Amino acid sequence: MAKMYGKGKTTVESEEQQKRRWQIELEFVQCLSNPNYLNFLAQRGYFKDQSFINYLKYLQYWKEPDYAKYLMYPMCLYFLDLLQYEHFRREIVNSQCCKFIDDQAILQWQHYTRKRIKLMENAAAAQQQQQQQQQQQLQQSNGGEAATAGEAAATGGMMATANGNGTASAAEAQPLGGSVQRGEPGQSQAVIPQQQQQQINGLATASNIKLELN
Fold first, then answer.
1. Which of 19, 75, 91, 125 has minimal Cβ neighbours within 10 Å of its Cβ?
2. Assigned domain for 134 exists
3. How far is Cα 41 from Cα 52, in angstroms, rounded to an integer?
4. pLDDT band at 31 (very low <50, low <70, confident <90, very high)
């Protein structure tokens, strides 16, 4: 816990003294967010004192995350950076300059919530769009795999159907009572119906009878 009590100790301090110094420095740093307070310090000549300027340099440790998380007015860090420049320390003495900065700070505070909400909505919309694109890509990849599997199944079914038709044709030729004339390998087979076969057989018998009578 000693770290939260600030930096730059030049003398030995008790824990209670460190805590009190940390609280004072925290309050003072946050007062720097008020341009009117800066104008007050400039008019009293504090920004011409080298010891005070060195003190402002020392207070820059509040920009570290371990300390900045305790600040209720983060804008004070912006003015703390500006106070490191001599030109800003001279110009803040001018009341018109102070009023201009004060007006800009008020506008920033008024529109901060609106800007913050808009930024959050834009970030959420971008994240949602990215998720949708990822889902679409995933669906397209899954669809391509399914189409490939369907084509393979359809090809297998056509081959099975062709083999089944060839077997069925040979089997259907037998119940008709016809005869099958077998040719040479690689040639088509002719199927003769039963009536034509009987006529052929009858003609062959008549020819044999005529030959015998002669």
1. 125
2. no
3. 10
4. very high
Which residue(s) pair with 191 in the sheet?
Answer: 180
Residue 97 lies in a domain: yes
Question: Residue 80 domain-assigned?
Answer: yes
Which of the 8 DSSP states describes residue 74?
T
Q: Which domain holds residue 40?
A: 2-127
Exposed e or buried b for every residue in 101-118, given b needs 16+ CB within 10 A? beeebeeeeeeeeeeeee
Question: What's the number of domains the chain is made of?
Answer: 1
From 34, 55, 58, 33, select the one nearest 46 (Cα to Cα): 55
Q: What is the pLDDT of residue 40?
A: 94
- How much is the pTM? 0.50
Q: How many angstroms separate the CA atoms of 214 and 212, rounded?
A: 5
At 33, list the tokens.
Answer: 């967010």
193 Rama sector, left if φ>0, alpha if ψ -120 to 50, beta otherwise: beta
Within-domain flag for 154: no
Output the pLDDT for position 12.
Answer: 75
Q: Is 132 helix (H, G, I), strand (E, B) or coil?
A: helix
Question: What's the CA gap between 86 and 48, in Å, rounded?
Answer: 9
Q: Residues 128-137, buried b or exposed e (16+ Cβ, 10 A)?
A: eeeeeeeeee
CATH number for position 119: 1.10.10.1340
pLDDT at 104: 86
Q: What is the pLDDT of residue 86?
A: 93
Compute φ and ψ for 96, nearest 5 degrees: -65, -40
Question: At residue 123, does pLDDT exceed 80?
Answer: yes
